[in-house]
Structures are given as structure tokens and as C-alpha cells.
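Thread: S-adenosyl-L-homocysteine complex, take 2
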Amino acid sequence: YKEFQKLGTKSGSDRNKAMVEQLHHFGVITSKKVAEVMGTVDRACFVPLGTPPYVDSPMQIGYNVTISAPHMHAMCLQLLEENLKPGMRALDVGSGTGYLTACFALMVGPEGRAVGVEHIPELVNSSIQNIQNSAAASFLEQGSLLVHVGDGRLGWPEDAPYDAIHVGAAAKEIPRLLIDQLKPGGRLVIPVGNIFQDLQVVDKNLDGSLSIRSETSVRYVPLTSREAQLRGY
Ligand code: SAH
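Output below.
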């Protein structure tokens, strides 16, 4: 390790921090808290072996899906920041590698709860291993971070209502059950559409009414059935 340092080669976690610094430099990351969390959770723990962890683009993770690009993770964390304060509850639908669920766990802290739901059991198992290798391991151990196998279109009613819900796959329309599982004052971030999708931000107001806006155009894999996904849609 010392030899590498002499040669000026940076360790993985230094390169993760450099990636965060780049995203900050280009104005993608504006939140200090999000920079801190993304700087702490090393993406290298979450991508398959042989996949470049710090390149700002989505990467294949098997099962016809991808880990989202770092700039999308940053954007979603920032859109949800006010709903990821210590002690709050967050649901990550289509948790995939577990990267964002791990970030949620750091944001809400040990008194909060970060719940991932993913419909591919193999991805749930590998995401748990990824988290165990990461800075979020203690949250898994202590029970404030959980990842379940399930159809995320149904949400995860056991831990509802949530302050924050993130959906990492594109829905044809906003699933009613996710709205139901949102707290008044809570926020849902979800890509909606087929090929052309909008990242929608849904706020449940204190009187229960909804305010919906489109943040930007995005391209996510579909939120669908396990069968359709494994057959290639
Ligand atoms: N945000 C994650 C994964 C993004 S890919 C990451 O960055 O690692 C979208 C994920 O949603 C995939 O893992 C896919 O298997 C999952 N998914 C798609 N439809 C689903 C559904 N109905 N229920 C649960 N998970 C679903």
C-alpha cells in the first residue's frame, strides 16, 4: 500500500472522494450533507467486480438492469434531503445494488429507518453483501437498514408511512399504494413514462392533497414484473 502511495496511486476511497469532488465541481452536488454521505459510501463496494465504480454513467449489474449513474444518485438524494433527516423513514423501491438504500441509512441515522425492496432475490442477497462491505454495515447490523425481496409496486406497508420514497425504475403511472404509504409532508421521487420519462417529484401536503412536478427527463429501466424483466421486457 505504501509503495502505491509513493507512486501516487490513490486508494479506492480516495478515488470515490475525487468522484464526489468532481460532481461538486460541475454543480451536480450542491448539498454538503449529500457530498459527505456519497463520500462515505464507496461505490466500489456496490458494483460488480471488473466494473469501473467511479465513472459517471449507469453500469450493468445483471438481470437486465443497471446501477444508476452517480449524478442520478446525487440528484435523488438532494431532492429527498429534507425528507431524510435523522429519525425519518425512507423506502427505496427497486433497491438493486443497495447503494442508495445505504446512503439513505446514513442520512436518517440509527434512529431512522431505510427500507429497500427489490424483486430479484439474487440482487437482494448481493446488495446485503455490498452493504456489509460498506460504511453502512453497522446500520444493517443494528436493524435500521433492511432490504426485502418483494414487488416494489406494492411498497412495503410494514414500515409505512414514509417521509421519503424513491423509485429506481420507471413506472407507467404512479403506483397508488406508494402514495398511500407516504406521510403527510412526505415526498416521492419516481421516474414516470415508457421510453421518454420524467423524474416526478410528488409532495403529499399536510391536508393529504398532492403537488406534482417534473424535475427533468431521465432514462431508467422499467418498473415491471420479475418475469417481464428476466425475459428482457
Ligand atoms: N437504484 C438501484 C437499482 C436501479 S435498477 C441502484 O442504483 O443500484 C432498478 C431496479 O429495480 C432493478 O434492480 C430491478 O430489478 C428493480 N425492479 C424493477 N421492477 C421492480 C418491481 N416491480 N419491484 C421491485 N423491484 C423492481
